[in-house]
């Protein structure tokens, strides 16, 4: 349909836009600074086929470099574009003057030079420019900009240079005569399905402040709001604009109506609930708070006063935006059901320094966030459920040993990226969440649970035997935990003070690992960073307290899954000196191994070997019984 040039294609909005454009009959050229980053994005967004078949073509360049830093051959290629989507530029509200000038204003000049050449030589069908919603320029005031520029002089360099870039491209488009669509994006959050939000600078600042218990007073309270848009909704909007055969120059604001959006007080209260901290008790004027944050004392809080610029108390004109959305049947509203996932995803990202999940994609199953890798074959999907002081990421080395099967690693409620279940009954909340997640699978699954996850999967097995082809328990906790954990409040305090050496000693004394050398360094890092989150810390303490109560281990039958016990297997590490396997479970097929409690984490390859043996044995037994 068109040859499209896009800048910022490896950014948060850009990569979702590429995913949308790849579904159309376009050829797309993508300006990238790094081929390595491009390859990573292609794997992450499943764009490798579109790349290798020529629908997507990367060219190496730099927005702020003369002639975009393109080679002569790549320059010729981009000069044949019909549509230009300019989405490039860093999301860093703390950029200095010169950095911001190069990233936005100089980039605007380079893009205008290219657009003018294309329009003079062949005609440019459409220029689409992505700008922040706080830009004061629109189709009514750009040709008399002096008062607006004067009013914006006090804005931070990041905002001011974005405003001037908006103005410069409007001026250039008018002079050269090509159609220009300016999209004023509000705060962009994760997609409307599972809320994955790698861009932590926007809403993430408020999440981080709430997690640090610095938002007892909410800026703006009930009078202000934070305009937001899902990244996939933004990408869909950009994609349909790129398809317009006769575009007109227009300005579009992408956001919900103010009346449909939570007030700052409502947003702050919901955020506190998801992060499991005290709800805010009052409000403060954004102007007052900004002046406080600008002082030396305020700067020690680590909250940029520039972040308050996104909090507003005005409405924005949405008629042109709604006309395009109605014309193409686009979804416009923020999905309130996914906001808890956005909040917990940001909480996770802020707490963790490394998130190496290459080969797995973030997804969602019912109320749980997941990591998934899908394979097209007839093998039942394998679902892995972690224990306490753990998460989906910790079981990636184990899941990687099953390339022949689709795998799904869940984050239990309140752990990793999953919102807490908020039920009064802690155990029931976890069980019901896992039940709902499993019910999203179209075919029966193989269910694998470690430690606390073993208890939960056994409970789920009782409720959904028809949805589980086999159950595999790795060191399941089937009797009360040590009484030292019975006070959730004390445990939470202790978890908050854990050091690296203290955690290692605790893990060794609890026979989670056989030796210091057996503890993976990445696991130590994960646990300590995970416990930075008040949500995870509180959930972990409550789960451990719940596990000290004997009534948590009652089953509907004497042995879980007794009518189908041939489908159940246990791998038991005999070096665990805290937990033992109760006698009533000895009738289940059990492999005793010389290992400690956390062997799925310390010995993933060997654990996979044992699991595969059990899977084969169960498959053989079931096929024999059919005969």
TrEMBL record:
Cross-referenced SUPFAM superfamilies: alpha/beta-Hydrolases (SSF53474), NAD(P)-binding Rossmann-fold domains (SSF51735)
Boundaries of every Thioester reductase (TE) domain copy: 6-238
Pfam family, one: NAD_binding_4
Annotated AB hydrolase-1 domain residues: 382-608
Membrane-crossing residue ranges in chain numbering: none
Matches recorded under PANTHER family: NAD(P)-BINDING DOMAIN-CONTAINING PROTEIN-RELATED, PROTEIN YEEZ
Protein name: Thioester reductase-like protein/pimeloyl-ACP methyl ester carboxylesterase
